[in-house]
Amino acid sequence: MGVATIRALYTELPEPVGVARDPIAGAILPRPLSFAARLASRASSERSAERVHHALGLASLGMTYHVALRTRAIDDALRDALSRGVRQLVVLGAGLDGRAYRMDELAGAAVFEVDHPSTQRDKRARLRGARIEPRAREVRLVSVDFERDELGASLAREGFSADEPSFWIWEGVTVYLTRAAIAGTLSAVGAASAPGSRIALTYVPPREPWLERALLAGGRVLARVIGEPIRGFVTPEEVAALGREAGLFVSSDEGADEWSRRYWSSEYEGIFEWERLVILERR
Ligand SMILES: C[S@@+](CC[C@H](N)C(=O)[O-])C[C@H]1O[C@@H](n2cnc3c(N)ncnc32)[C@H](O)[C@@H]1O
């Protein structure tokens, strides 16, 4: 809900700061959150939008910048895959991801949303409440716990074909998982990926020791409140090695600096980079 609130906010903010539009986010969030996003985005002139954008970026240590930029970077990577003829999208740890419900480019594609059953129940009720229908050809919900369940078998049961190329999104999830679950899931992705498939995966590189300790302490509080402990820090080299073991090779590895220059034509101003986005491909 936190990241969906940021997406709702950036949907309302005008360009050039509004780089990623997700109208589904605001429509399915609890009312106080969508109201907060709408309130902050009352800034309709370019100047006031810039002020809201910078104030929230500063207050969130760059998290709001990060979510807006990563949404756009992943949307672009997905559109590129669809333009190359990919017709299967798997969203791992989908949460309130709205792509299947907001992207007309998915009209010819099957979308598999993978998550905990409780998260899926909640999302389904929210979509129904807001009378939102998929834009994708079909949406299949696949219940999987990355720490325990067989991803490949669960997808196959829902009609996923490992013989056709696919695009996978694993956005904002790996930091909540153990190393074994990250490796196991990547291995399942590699095994189910036909040549030409790609995965867009965000990960949090290890930080300075004091910052890592602070994030872990924050994670413990978060775990108690919402049941999502922070644990999976990985370096770019480790992600590349885990990918290689799964038969997936780095096509690009970018973070806030590259995105900010590309989408905002400016240097990144957040205090932290938060996550990086690696695109791994099956050749
Ligand atoms: C921060 S949310 C990100 C949601 C979405 N990808 C986005 O960017 O808006 C993390 C998601 O990962 C899911 N998740 C966390 N641990 C998981 C696990 N062990 N198995 C399956 N899903 C998990 C949560 O249910 C949640 O939907």
From TrEMBL:
Q: What does this protein do?
A: Exhibits S-adenosyl-L-methionine-dependent methyltransferase activity.
Q: Name one Pfam family in it.
A: LCM
One MF annotation (Gene Ontology) recorded for this entry: methyltransferase activity
- EC number(s): the record gives 2.1.1.-
Q: Which Gene3D superfamilies match?
A: Vaccinia Virus protein VP39
Keywords, sorted A to Z: Methyltransferase, S-adenosyl-L-methionine, Transferase
- List this protein's GO terms for biological process: methylation
Name of the protein described by the UniProt record:
S-adenosyl-L-methionine-dependent methyltransferase
Family listed: Belongs to the UPF0677 family.
This protein's record includes keyword NADP: no
Q: Does the keyword Ribosomal protein apply?
A: no
What EC class is this?
transferase
